[in-house]
Amino acid sequence: MVGLGEDDLRVLAGARSFERGLGYLDAVSGLEVGEGSVTAVVHGTDVYEVELTLGGDEGVSGSCDCPYGQEGNFCKHCVAVGLTVLRRAKTIPQQRAAARARASGLEAWLSALSRDELLALVREQIAEDRELRRRLELRAAAARSDLGTVRDRIVALIDPRPFARYGYIEYADASGYGRQVAEAASALRALTAEGQAAQAVGLAEEAIRVLGEAYGEIDDSDGVVGEAAAAVAEAHLEACGVARPDPDRLAEWLVGTVLDDSNDVTDLDPLDYADALGPSGLARLRQLAAEALRRRPSGWAERYLMERLVKAEGDVDALVALHAQDLDPSGATHLRIAEELESAGRMDEALAWAERGLRECAAEAHMDGRLVDYVCVRYAKAGRAADSVAVRRDRFRVERSLAAYRQLRAAAQAAQCWEAERAAALAALGEDARLEDGGRYGGPVLIDALLDDGDLDAAWREAAGRADDRQWERLADLSRETRPAEALGVYLRLVERSKEPTGDRAYERLARLLGGVRDCHRVLGTEDAFTVYLAGLRTELKRRRKLMSILDQHGL
User: How many other C-beta atoms are found inside a 10 Å radius of the C-beta of residue 54?
Assistant: First the structure.
């Protein structure tokens, strides 16, 4: 089938589950091929149902009701079914055609049944399938406007207690609960369709409340409950559009629900209800949001709601005023204001706000880098290269990081003043390095800057007693052709420190260092000395078979 191969199965399952799946090929039975999916039964410790979905944007996926599969893993049973499909690839088209023929035959048979025969068949099925019976009972109650029965049934469907065996709903039970919530959403839509939209509004709001209270105690790793809850929210929106509830009351419910800290199961957007709210409801919504923000000015949800409403109104000045009430010390809020003003075509005001952010946050060690970039980009476009250098210089003085050094270098090179700026920047880093404790940023920043500039002579001078192993290795890598003897000394020292750690990552690093040792001996013309050194090292570490294998792979 398209999109399915052994490599896909191995990647999805992992080597261990793939190998174990090979042992279950004879345990697969009841293989049924549909359009883009296959189902089968696998006999293991128990009898497990497996479904593989193939093709489409998401590629191959599988589900199994074994314990490992219920945790979301592509288990050995999925592997067994996938391999069975591959081994029967030649017969798949015929099986798919047979499935279509069966579906067509079923449709024709049902169409030929009389009303009494169809009723008898439905009665037979609901006697055997309790879930089907409950769904039909709910639809029947909605059709005859039996609101008491509908309400009781919807409340029962969203009640999490039958699934919360230990006080919370485990992953294995979340899908079952999600199916019931989705069934409740269908019932709410049916209620609206039967002319009972007002009742559907109230029931949906109760369902959203219950779901919000329960969601924190549900392992919804696959998002099935969240999707079902979203369907309930959509049913509520649909019912409001038909019933047209009191705008003020709807606004109050929306604000209360959105700002409820315990309700994170539905991502309600009050603006989706604009049509149902009308002008008076939107005004009430804005009033309630403003009151909530005054009561809790630091509340994230309150501020976000207010921002959404103000932005939807298109009032840029009101949005700027709102942001200005809570300016983040990193400058992130100044940047947001600048971006909003720029989007409105108010370029000068935008830059003024960004510059204000630089001034007010100048002492912050962790200023939002995007604000600095914003200002420097606009300075560059305006031909203000010297101003851009000044901004980068100020940030470097506070941050003293390699990133800030690089940004200063780029700006100064564009302004053709890097030589002077570099001398001052390296002097500042050198002063940090000479402090008794190494400085707040330590010597390594100075060495990193010199390495980044390609100034290896200066880097060698500063490295003694200051560089860490990472910097020594980088310095040796860059110097093996020009200073092979000094680089060799570094590599040998690092090799000695790297003998003790174990594991693939440590072994790969050791092999890389030995490659450096080999290159230095090659440049020095002392390959025989390297051969003797490597033989001794391999003898010393010969018990580490994985290391020996990795050295072999690297030609060592």
Answer: 20
> Phi and psi at residue 88, in whole multiples of 5°?
-110, 25
- The torsion angle over the Cα atoms of residues 346, 351, 357 and 363, rounded to 10 degrees, is 180
- Contact between 331 and 295 (Cβ < 8 Å): no
Per-residue pLDDT tens over the stretch 238-274: 999 999 999 999 999 999 999 987 777 778 899 999 9
Q: Supply 337's token pair.
A: 């204001």
d(CA 177, CA 171): 10
Token pair of 99 as six digits:
């499935």
For residue 502, is it left (φ>0), alpha (ψ between -120 and 50) or beta?
A: beta
Length of the chain: 556
Closest CA to 308 of 332, 294, 289: 289
Beta-strand runs (E) in 411-493: none
Token couple for 201: 């509004």
| Whether this model's pTM surpasses 0.90 | no
Using DSSP's 3-state secondary structure scheme, residue 53 falls into strand
Q: Which residues contact 5 (CB under 8 A, 6 or more apart)?
A: 86
| CB proximity list for 60: less than 8 A, separation 6 or greater | 3, 4, 8, 9, 12, 52, 53, 54, 82
Tell me how far apart the alpha carbons of residues 161 and 3 are, in angstroms, rounded to a whole number.
41
Rounded (10°) CA dihedral 343, 348, 353, 355: 130
3-state secondary structure of 32: strand
Classified as helix, coil or strand, 40 is strand
**Residue found by looking up tokens 């100044």 in the block:** 334
For residues 39 and 49, is the Cβ–Cβ distance under 8 A?
yes
CB 493, CB 477: distance < 8 Å: no
Structure tokens at 533: 């050194």
CA dihedral 549, 553, 554, 556 (to 10 degrees): 50
Regions of the chain with pLDDT less than 50: 436-442
98-135 per-position pLDDT tens digit: 878 888 888 899 899 899 999 999 899 988 887 788 77
- CA angle 514/520/524 to nearest 5° reads 145
Residues 469/495, Cβ–Cβ less than 8 Å: no
